[in-house]
């Protein structure tokens, strides 16, 4: 036995054995690094082309000087002319002649945004493409909301069609939907589509209240739940799209809850339009917030979350203006900052796509504020306050 132990000790103490083990250790570390690099490159290489295009699009975003120039413009005609060389130029040409109606400019901007999502989905790898296609669904929802409002106020088919974004899964059916004469007929014409049950369920409330709020909130909830379901099944905890969609989920739920408190809606009604799950806000927390007595109670209930500081600051402005817009503005800014952070975290993968769509949506919101401000005759100072 002692001879065997002695033999093993002599073997281990041999310089050749030490060198051999050292070399094997280096080989193992090297192989781990190679495997990591191969995996990293396999995940990021498919994004090389799309990210080159994304950075080109980012370079065409409007800077602060350009936005200030638009704010200082003499009116909407001059503003549209100043945007002639931008990505919005070809779209806004259709709004000329209707400068005093913001809906035409808003449609032009929304059409540009829809084309952006469409282009990104077309050039992106399969994983990102699937999520971007789901984001495109919000233009279907936007069209349905526009159709509902048009039927509600009695616009004719041509007036209605002029307000629609001619994209999405309903593109070939929009003309037919414009011909409907009422909200009830519109809901019936969408039978067989994934939105139809939502609209049918909302008709009872509409007939009682003559308000479209129920249907519109149900459509918004439908989009969020579809996005979240998809990223939860196909994504991973490290998937940036999951974090981005999760942030949207929480933010939109909080908007619904705060609006419900501002409108004195019961918790039962509010919870109908809050998604069944959240990202950082668990279902029990969402229920607790919906059951709060007031907006102050909602903010107190968020004390242990990252959303509390945002709302505490916005509460001061809300108390001055009594407008829920103060909270929505803070949430929208938070989504943009989240998108920018995610774009830096994974600069060679899906990050830049998320960064671009959040920046572009924020830019379009600003342009809508400027255009509406010009039409309403607001001063440059007042427009800047709305954008702040």
TrEMBL record:
Example GO BP: proton motive force-driven plasma membrane ATP synthesis
Keywords: ATP synthesis, Cell membrane, Hydrogen ion transport, Ion transport, Membrane, Transmembrane, Transmembrane helix, Transport
Nucleotide-binding keyword on record: no
Keyword Transport assigned: yes
Segments crossing the lipid bilayer: 17-38
GO cellular component term of the entry, any: plasma membrane
Membrane topology field: Peripheral membrane protein
Pfam families: vATP-synt_AC39
Subcellular location: Cell membrane
Superkingdom of origin organism: Archaea
GO molecular function, one term: proton-transporting ATPase activity, rotational mechanism
Family matches, as InterPro entries: ATPase_csu/dsu_sf, ATPase_V0-cplx_csu, ATPase_V0-cplx_csu/dsu, V-ATPase_V0D/AC39_subunit, V-type_ATPase_csu/dsu, V-type_ATPase_csu/dsu_dom_3
Family label: Belongs to the V-ATPase V0D/AC39 subunit family.
Protein role: Component of the A-type ATP synthase that produces ATP from ADP in the presence of a proton gradient across the membrane.
Quaternary structure, from the entry: Has multiple subunits with at least A(3), B(3), C, D, E, F, H, I and proteolipid K(x).
Protein name stated in the entry: A-type ATP synthase subunit C
